[in-house]
Write a sequence for this structure.
């Protein structure tokens, strides 16, 4: 193929190389970060398809070929659709697969009808940029409701600034082409405006990658923070998270008198399960207990696993008497839960009960440690009085 000397093929090829490098980086990230692999694979595909589009564009010349002119546009839109799908997956937005398929089919049919000839070049430019603009408009409409609900309207718009900029840029390119239908503004032609457009693509690619990297890092930081405050077996909060929440609750109580209580639960004779049936059976009992507790407490309560077979429930706004009623319900419910597991044939202890110590915050506690100490004393009193009971701290 002989290339037109008045083309920007070398510059277009360099842009293609840049996008291929970005694709390789995201592919490496997908290999390393298993939890975010699906999202990163989509973003790697986005960069690779856009790179392929620029590569095909760099081969444009005479005679005109379908792949160099029409295939490049299809690769571009395929990349933008992968971008959309990746962003939607990241924010857990609805898939909107029907809209994505419709955009691609319309672009494909349009390119099949127009062909690579110079006579359809202007229409091809409008179709390509118009399709790209439509993809980003639909992407914003798809994701904004989810991000606005999760982060608030202001932060949602900040996250979508790159997409909004691209929509405006594509709209200006469509308007430019429609205002001068006799001259096709194909990106490969040597033109100062096309050079500026290529520079804009380079800047946009960097902006997108910075945004994507920030999103990935934010999710990783959130995940690490969650791991630092979660119990690995049950998924409940751990002692560290509960201590921090108790300190906050004590501060509210000191400032505004907002009372609260805690319940310290200990599974009776739990060691027998580990000794007779093994630690795997014991882990199943702990997991089942933790999940049931989380489901049964009130909406504002907090449940944590604070020891081997010990759980702590924080009950904001509850007096000692009210929290004792809740603790009694938990005690009876847990016993019934384990009886049901036994009846279903699960290997567990013949009987498994729970002892609970309840304490309401008082002036003499001096902080979370004093409150927990009183709940622990009530728990040991429940153990001494025969187990399978609730005791309220004085």
């Amino acid at each position: 193929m002989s290339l037109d000397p008045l083309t920007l093929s070398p510059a277009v090829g360099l842009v293609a190389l840049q996008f291929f490098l970005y694709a390789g980086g995201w592919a490496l990230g997908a290999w390393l970060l298993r939890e975010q692999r699906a999202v990163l694979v989509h973003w790697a595909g986005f960069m690779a398809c856009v790179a392929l589009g620029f590569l095909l564009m760099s081969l444009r010349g005479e005679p005109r070929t379908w792949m160099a002119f029409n295939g490049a546009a299809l690769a571009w839109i395929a990349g933008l659709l992968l971008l959309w799908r990746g962003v939607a997956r990241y924010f857990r937005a609805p898939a909107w697969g029907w809209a994505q398929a419709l955009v691609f089919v319309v672009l494909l049919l349009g390119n099949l009808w127009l062909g690579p000839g110079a006579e359809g070049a202007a229409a091809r430019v409008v179709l390509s940029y118009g399709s790209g603009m439509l993809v980003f408009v639909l992407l914003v409409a798809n994701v904004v409701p989810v991000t606005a609900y999760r982060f608030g309207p202001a932060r949602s718009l900040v996250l979508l600034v790159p997409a909004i900029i691209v929509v405006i840029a594509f709209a200006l390119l469509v308007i430019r082409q429609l205002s001068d239908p006799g001259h096709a503004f194909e990106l490969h032609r040597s033109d100062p405006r096309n050079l500026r457009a290529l520079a804009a693509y380079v800047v946009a690619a960097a902006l997108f990658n910075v945004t994507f990297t920030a999103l990935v890092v934010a999710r990783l930081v959130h995940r690490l923070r969650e791991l630092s405050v979660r119990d690995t077996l049950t998924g409940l909060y751990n002692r560290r998270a509960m201590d921090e929440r108790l300190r906050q609750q004590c501060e509210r109580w000191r400032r505004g008198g907002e009372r609260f209580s805690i319940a310290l639960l200990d599974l009776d004779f739990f060691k027998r399960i580990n000794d007779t049936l093994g630690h795997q059976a014991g882990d199943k009992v702990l997991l089942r207990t933790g999940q049931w507790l989380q489901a049964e407490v009130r909406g504002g309560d907090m449940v944590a696993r604070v020891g081997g077979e010990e759980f702590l429930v924080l009950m904001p706004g509850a007096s000692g008497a009210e929290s004792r009623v809740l603790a009694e319900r938990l005690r009876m419910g847990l016993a019934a839960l384990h009886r049901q597991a036994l009846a279903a044939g699960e290997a567990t202890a013949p009987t498994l009960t729970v002892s609970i110590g309840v304490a309401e915050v008082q002036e003499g506690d001096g902080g979370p440690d004093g409150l927990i100490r009183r709940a622990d004393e009530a728990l040991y009193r429940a153990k001494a009085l025969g187990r399978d009971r609730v005791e309220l701290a004085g």
User: Anything to note?
Assistant: Confidence is low (pLDDT under 50) at residues 1-6. The CA atoms of residues 254 and 363 lie 9 Å apart. The chain has two domains: 9-229, 239-392. Residues 9-229 form one domain.
